[in-house]
TrEMBL record:
The keyword Oxidoreductase applies. GO terms for cellular component: cytosol. Residues 1-293 form the Luciferase-like domain. InterPro entries: Bact_Lucif_Oxidored (IPR050766), CmoO-like (IPR019949), Luciferase-like_dom (IPR011251), Luciferase-like_sf (IPR036661). Keywords: Oxidoreductase. One of its GO terms (molecular function) is oxidoreductase activity, acting on paired donors, with incorporation or reduction of molecular oxygen. Gene3D superfamilies: Luciferase-like domain. It comes from Salinicoccus hispanicus. It comes from the Bacteria. This is MsnO8 family LLM class oxidoreductase. Its EC number is 1.-.-.-.
Length: 324
C-alpha cells in the first residue's frame, strides 16, 4: 500500500495561520520519516479555517525542508488561471526538485461566483473549458505547443486530473495522465471511476497509468478513541457545508454541539461518515483494504482534519504502522 497526505491545512480554533503553516512543515517532515511517499496541498480561498490557498508555494516550502518526499497539488483550480502560467510554475518546481513534483489540477471554481471572478480577474466563467485548458497545459509541458513552458527540464513533472466520477476519469485516461478520485467528497462513484480510467488510459503525457484516491482517515488507539477524535472533524465538516466557521472546533465545543444536534444535522453527519474511515488500527485496516479491493487501488492520499495536532500525528503514526 502506498500512502500520502492531502493537506487542506485546516486551522484549529485558537491557532493562527502562521502557527498552522509552521505545523504543516512539521507534519510533512514526520510523514517522510514514517514512510509516506507524497504530501499534496489543496487550494481554498477566502475561508477562515483552511490555510492552503497557494499549493505551488507550499509544495516548494515542503520540498525544500524534506529530502525525498514527493510534493503535489490537489488541486490547482485550472479553469480560473492561464494554463501556460500554471505549466510554467510546475516546470519551475520540477527544475528545483527533479522527480519529486506531481501537479494535480481540477475544475472547481474555488468558491462562489464572487470568489471565482476574483481569481479569474473578472473573466467569464471558464469551467466548461477545463478539458481544453488541460490539453493546452500538457502541450506547454511536453513541447508540442508553439511555445514550451520554461524552464525546459530533462524530465517532465507528473500530471494528474482530480475528479469525482466517470467523466473526469475518462478525460484523464484519454489524455494519458494520472487520475485522483475524491472519495472524501463523493464516495459512491469510486469503483466505476477507476474502471473507466483503466479502460480509457493510453500512454500520452505519462507512459504508465497512475490512479489514487483521497479519503478522511482517523486512526485512534481503538474504535472508541477514534470516535472521540472524530467529533471535531464531524462538526468542522458540518459547519463547512453550512457555510459557517471553517476553523476546526475544539473537542469541548464539538462535544457540546454533538449533544444538541438536530435530526437533520445528525443525519448529515451520519452520511458524511461514508466519506471517512474512523476506528482503531484493526477497523481502519479492514475498511481501507475493502475500498482498495473495490477500487483496485493501492495508492491513497489521507486527510485528517481534527483539532488536536498531537493526536493527528499519532493517527498518522498508527496508520503507517499498519502499512508502511
Amino acid at each position: 500500500m502506498k500512502l500520502g497526505i492531502l493537506d487542506q491545512m485546516p486551522k484549529p480554533k485558537g491557532r493562527t495561520a502562521e502557527e498552522t503553516a509552521a505545523h504543516t512543515i512539521e507534519m510533512a517532515q514526520l510523514a517522510e520519516s514514517l514512510g509516506y511517499e507524497r504530501y499534496w496541498f489543496a487550494e481554498h480561498h477566502a475561508t477562515r479555517g483552511m490555510v492552503s490557498s497557494a499549493p505551488e508555494i507550499m509544495m516548494a516550502a515542503v520540498a525544500s525542508r524534506t529530502k525525498n518526499l514527493k510534493v503535489g497539488s490537489g488541486g490547482i483550480l485550472l479553469p480560473q488561471y492561464s494554463a501556460f502560467k500554471v505549466a510554467s510554475q510546475i516546470a519551475q518546481l520540477e527544475s528545483l526538485f527533479p522527480g519529486r513534483v506531481e501537479a494535480g489540477v481540477g475544475r472547481s471554481p474555488g468558491g462562489g461566483e464572487f470568489i471565482r471572478k476574483l481569481l479569474a480577474d473578472d473573466k467569464p466563467n471558464q469551467m466548461e473549458e477545463y478539458p481544453d485548458k488541460l490539453k493546452h497545459m500538457i502541450e506547454y509541458l511536453d513541447g508540442s505547443a508553439k511555445v514550451r513552458a520554461s524552464p525546459r527540464t530533462i524530465d517532465r513533472p507528473k500530471l494528474y486530473s482530480l475528479g469525482l466520477g466517470e467523466n473526469s476519469a475518462l478525460l484523464a485516461g484519454l489524455l494519458g495522465i494520472g487520475y485522483v478520485f475524491g472519495h472524501f467528497i463523493r464516495p459512491d462513484r469510486g469503483a466505476a471511476s477507476f474502471q473507466t480510467y483503466r479502460d480509457a488510459f493510453s500512454p500520452g503525457f505519462m507512459n504508465e497509468s497512475s490512479a489514487r484516491a483521497c479519503v478522511f482517515i482517523i486512526c485512534g488507539k481503538n474504535d472508541r478513541h477514534a470516535e472521540q477524535l472524530a467529533q471535531s472533524q464531524d462538526i468542522w465538516l458540518l459547519n463547512v457545508e453550512k457555510g459557517l466557521d471553517s476553523q476546526v472546533p475544539t473537542s469541548e465545543a464539538a462535544e457540546e454541539k454533538i449533544r444538541t444536534l438536530t435530526e437533520d444535522e445528525a443525519e448529515k453527519i451520519k452520511n458524511n461518515r461514508r466519506r471517512m474511515i474512523i476506528g482503531g488500527p484493526e477497523t481502519v485496516k479492514a475498511e481501507l483494504d475493502h475500498f482498495s479491493n473495490l477500487y483496485q487501488c493501492e495508492d491513497w492520499l489521507v486527510l485528517c482534519n481534527i483539532h488536536d495536532w498531537e493526536e493527528k500525528k499519532r493517527s498518522l503514526e498508527r496508520l503507517a504502522g499498519i502499512y508502511l
